[in-house]
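Thread amino acids onto this structure.
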């Protein structure tokens, strides 16, 4: 980004933010979305919610973790480090080792939050776990096929069209010499499906 900034071209980031006030940004509200996803599980009786996050080097990694923490705090539940897996550096998909470590705890999670729900679903099946019979699963960034699986997955839907439209509008304003409001956040929509039923032990 610094190289682009040096050219003097206007910049608008989509789906992430910069601490540089000269860089404008439009994003889904990762904190709000993760808060609502966590709250959804808590309201359905889940109390040991695993969190597979992204690196805290990225704004969306920080925002998701903050939303998760906020929901736990409102339910007066401690944040248990063993239930959280966050890489130090960038990685897209959780590994089999991450899932196996989480599920091998003496008191394993009863639900998992992840932005890679299809990968995690596959890894859980590889380890012999059934969703939602053995564990519930909620996605933090909806995959296109999430609603068409044998067990449709509860996910957060991103307002992609709205973000793209607003990003172009911001860019045009900046090119015109205006100083638009930034950062801009669009709410995510929780789509409740079969992968997060009411917890029978909740």
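Threaded sequence (202 positions):
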């Amino acid at each position: 980004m610094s190289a682009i900034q040096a050219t003097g071209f206007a910049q608008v980031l989509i789906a992430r933010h910069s601490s540089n006030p000269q860089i404008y940004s439009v994003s889904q509200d990762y904190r709000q979305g993760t808060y609502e996803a966590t709250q959804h599980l808590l309201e359905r009786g889940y109390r040991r919610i695993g969190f597979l996050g992204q690196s805290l080097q990225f704004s969306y990694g920080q925002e998701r973790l903050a939303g998760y923490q906020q929901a736990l705090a409102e339910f007066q539940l401690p944040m248990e480090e063993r239930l959280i897996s966050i890489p130090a550096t960038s990685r897209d998909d959780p590994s089999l080792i991450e899932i196996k470590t989480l599920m091998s705890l003496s008191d394993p999670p009863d639900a998992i939050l992840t932005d890679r729900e299809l990968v995690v679903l596959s890894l859980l099946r590889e380890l012999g776990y059934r969703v939602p019979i053995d564990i519930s699963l909620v996605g933090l960034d909806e995959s296109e096929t999430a609603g068409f699986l044998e067990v449709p997955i509860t996910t957060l839907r991103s307002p992609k069209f709205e973000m793209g439209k607003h990003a172009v509008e911001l860019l045009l304003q900046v090119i015109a010499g205006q100083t638009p409001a930034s950062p801009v956040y669009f709410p995510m929509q929780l789509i409740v499906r079969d992968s997060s039923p009411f917890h029978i032990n909740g």
